Amino acid sequence: MDGLIGVGLYTPAEAGRLLRIPAAKISRWLRGHEAGGKRYDPLWEPEVGLGDDRVFLGFRDLMEVRVADAFIKNGVSAIRVRAAIQLAREIIEQDHPLSTNRFMTAGREIFLQVIETDEDGNQRERLLNLFRRQYEFKGILEPILRSVDFGEDGSPRLWWPAGRRTNIVVDPSRAFGAPIDGETSVPTSVLAAAADGLGVAEAAHAYDVPVTAVRRAVDFEAGMEQRLAA
Questions:
Q1: What's the pTM value of the predicted model, to 2 decimals?
Q2: Which among 94, 89, 106 has a CA at the least distance from the CA of 155?
Q3: Interhelix angle 12-19/211-229, nearest 10 degrees
């Protein structure tokens, strides 16, 4: 487990809960799948491998899934997202290029190169039009990247899954990337469970954290459960 410090560790179910994306879809993207007698390769290789057939995600995978999902929801096929990732690796020189802030400026040109022709050599104009104006491309990425802190090399370091004002953070260097209270670094799941069993005030006393930290954790965890039930 020492090798996972600073990397994060998530099952597809845990990632899906955080990202509001079905776990089966995440598994399919990272494992690959067969459909109509054809084999579709994974969109990329996960950064975490524990030596078995199970799929795990690291923090960079989590951030990459967010961007890939946004493009697919906006009409870009998974095949083209995969091709864009492969091309972006060469241009940006990152294994998980979609999750970098450098992709904001380089990505539009990458997608234009990828979608000018399909796999049979036929021209496809519809997707080309989607990114013809740069503000349309940024309109997809900016809401996603706004909640992420980046390092000097452009790679993501921290994610604020409910927005910065909530002070809930996902940091791969703490708690293996589980959501934590930004003020106290205690996992939100721990504080919320303690509040459920002890009450908010007693939970705050037990973990020596402010009552506001417990309330933030309770609200965040409840919000994730509501989104899953929706």
A1: 0.87
A2: 94
A3: 100
